[in-house]
Amino acid sequence: MTLRSESPVGASLDQRFAEAMGAALGPDFPESIALAVSGGGDSMAMLTLAHNWTHVWGVRLRVVTVDHGLRPEAAAEAQMVAETCAELGWEHQTLRWHWDGQGNLMDAARRARLSLIDAWRGDTRDVLLAHTADDVAESFLMRLARGAGVEGLSAMRPVREVHAGQGTPMRILRPCLDMRRAELRHYLRVLQGQWVDDPSNDDEKYERVRARRLVARLEAEGTLAGADLSGAAARMARASEALRARAAQVWGEIAVAPSPQRLGELICDQSGFQCVERDTQLRLLSSALRYVSGAEYPPREAPLEALLDRLLGGGGGTLHGCEARIERGCIAIFREFAAVQELRVPAVAAALWDGRWRLARDVPEGLILRALGEDGWAQRDRAAPQPVPFHAARSAPALFEGARLVGCDALQPTGELPLFDFCLFGHGGQDFAAFLRYGPASG
Ligand SMILES: Nc1ncnc2c1ncn2[C@@H]1O[C@H](COP(=O)(O)OP(=O)(O)OP(=O)(O)O)[C@@H](O)[C@H]1O
After folding, report:
1. In 3D, which of 180, 171, 188 has the Cα closest to residue 212?
2. Cα(147) to centroid of ligand 1, in Å?
3. Whose CA is nearest to atom 25 of ligand 1?
4. Which of 21, 79, 81, 415 has a CA-to-CA distance to 298 between 20 and 30 Å?
């Protein structure tokens, strides 16, 4: 069954959707793509658009709904999506999540959604989300209110690769990014499609809802067109990309190659860094902090500027779970001890510590993985040369049997087999070019 709309709006949305998919996928269409559909208007419209599009391209749709277990109606909404999929002839799966009460609920729900979908998708690489131009405009206003810079104000990207697990990376596609929410609702109405309005979309306790109302008011007054904000965000994304390219070039010139004992840190030439224009310095510092901490988001602008000023003045400081300081003519950025001090992981095969260090060797049972710390440092072989200074070594991963230090790469002589691999699942590749490729916060 193909759902047809004679409405000019609907027709042009089908065309825009096909163009967005063509641009994202290139010439090689996959056998299947996944769609994250909540049952809300945006994602139900995306489902309909994708359904119509597959009739031309023969791609199989796999639809997933996450029931966060937060609202009693969520099960019925997932059922509505399942029924629509059954009518259209597509596979549908509901995944369930239970909040452990940790962290910010909205943020935890979004992260959980992505990791559940990643675990569910199997060999399907591409996952479609129904973010719209309105979402971009709202995010722009919210970030502006927080004093974000070029990176933070950048629009979400239509294609983003996510290294969330150990399998093939998932690709998030956002084919509705240039569509307005009202257009999508109109499209569904014309086609008599179903959707449910989540009551939290009207709850002003959420910043996004307040931003949405503000955009609507400014649009109604004629002060602003919502598209202007998403256009500005798109221009910021282009500026950010130019800055990234410049930062990558500069990094290639000033980076100091890491010794095997200092993997996971970033070190560059201080005088080379000082000669670079400030925007590039900020971009380099921001990307470096994300690389070293593994943080999903870049640091905020104001503390970033303050840290840069301290570094340029010859001092250092901590930010975003990292410490930056001057070391013999270099700037070193390494993990802040306080950020990893409490992390303890049983040293089983391939155990992951701090989301980035993976145990690379088989070790006897009963050992614990944790930061070297002051007590571990005190157990080093004092006669051996110390390749890593104490301030950086103490946050490095180490193996302990009770209180006894068993091994730590930061204390190993060069040439010895490392105990740990440095991996950046989640947030980029393993080389400096990849860390510079980190996208904007919204990406
Ligand atoms: N519970 C969910 N299950 C599956 N996918 C979801 C879920 N919640 C959100 N998504 C996906 O993530 C996108 C962005 O999420 P967001 O919460 O911003 O949605 P929204 O603006 O309310 O959109 P919608 O109207 O489709 O719910 C959605 O459009 C949808 O593709």
Report:
1. 180
2. 26
3. 40
4. 21
Quick one: tokens of 35?
Answer: 């769609």
Tokens of residue 83, six digits: 């029924």
Q: How many CB atoms lie within 10 A of CB 24?
A: 17
Identify the CA nearest to 34 among candidates 139, 108, 119, 103: 119
Let me know: does 354 contact 321? Beta carbons within 8 Å: no
Q: At a CB cut-off of 8 Å and minimum separation 6, what does 129 contact?
A: 36, 43, 172, 173, 174
Single-letter code of the amino acid located at 36: A
Cα separation, 147 vs 128, whole angstroms: 30
Q: Indicate whether this complex's ipTM tops 0.90.
A: yes
**Is 330 in contact with 269 (CB distance < 8 Å)?**
yes
- Atom of ligand 1 minimally distant from the CA of 201: 22
CATH match of 8-131+174-223 with 3.20.20.70:
no
| Residue with the larger pLDDT of the pair 392 and 98 | 392
CA of 130 relative to ligand 1 center, distance in Å: 6
Strand partners, 420: 359
Q: Is 75 exposed, middle or buried (0-12, 13-18, 19+ CB in 10 A)?
A: middle
3-state secondary structure of 2: coil
Give distance in angstroms: CA of 186 to centre of ligand 1.
Answer: 18
Q: Is 37 touching ligand 1 by the criterion CB < 6 Å? A: yes
Q: Is the CB of 130 under 6 A from ligand 1?
A: yes
The finding on whether 298 has its CB within 6 A of some atom of ligand 1 is no
Centroid of ligand 1 to alpha carbon of 216 (angstroms): 20
Residue limits of CATH 3.40.50.620 in the chain? 8-131+174-223
Mutate to test the pocket of ligand 1, among 43, 81, 98, 162 (most ligand atoms within 8 A of CB): 43
- Within 10 angstroms of residue 6's Cβ, the number of other Cβ atoms is 7
The Å distance, Cα 20 to ligand 1 centre, comes to 19
12-69 tens-digit pLDDT: 899 999 999 999 999 889 999 999 999 999 999 999 999 999 988 889 999 999 999 8
Condensed to tens digits (0 to 9), the pLDDT of residues 383-437 reads 988 889 999 999 999 999 999 999 999 998 877 888 998 876 544 433 344 555 5
